[in-house]
Design a protein that fits this description.
nine-stranded mixed β-sheet, 253 residues, Jelly Rolls, mainly beta, seven-stranded antiparallel β-sheet
Amino acid sequence: MCAEEIKYLPFLFVFLTLQTNAMEIRPAFKRGHADHEWLNTYHTFSFAEYFDPQHMGFSTLRVINEDRITGGSGFDTHPHKDMEIVTYVVSGALEHKDSLGNTAIIMPDEVQVMSAGTGVKHSEFNHLKDKYTHFLQIWILPEKKGITPRYGQKSFKNAFAQQVLVLVVSKDGREESIIINQDADLYIGKLKSSQEINFKIRPGRHIWIQMIKGALEVNDVRIEAGDGLAISVEKALKIVAKANAEFILFDLQ
């Protein structure tokens, strides 16, 4: 996001281990980490100065950064091109400004999507004096390059109050989700302890679950805050909250 973008390799980023294992945990403690005082960040996949050839992404999912920005700090204006950038604020508030003329405050329960396309510049700041802003920024490889840049932002607070798993981003914008330039569905789940859901996986799809808070048991595999879970081959998921949990589920081609 704020750092220089890593050039991605022109192949499908499915982990080699998934050819033999249906489910693979990416433990939180094995993520890349950098503490810049004003920014405490964890990288699920290679990003900026963190490079691991075994963790370059998953399917079209390229970056998951979990960031905490201290009050009065942020990312100065920087460019992006040909990348789908999704931001989800967990707590705090994040001010966004971009070269498309958009100025907005992203609040908890809100999702922002920026299709960088031919090129866009933006900045992000936490103007809360005594509180850090906790958010996840996600990069997804675009289906088409060179599109006209596009911006979308929406609060899903009402949907979260009614559903435990909410579709927030999709290619076709169904269920009032935000449109993205890729065949990728992003769901945000919020389960109370002992709640469970069943998720059917379409043929040929790959699933990544990124934990934000709490603990889940997915087909008897336990994951906790900060963990990622890569899922291939499975036809369905039984997701049970072992504690109050918040997570993102990516349904990828």
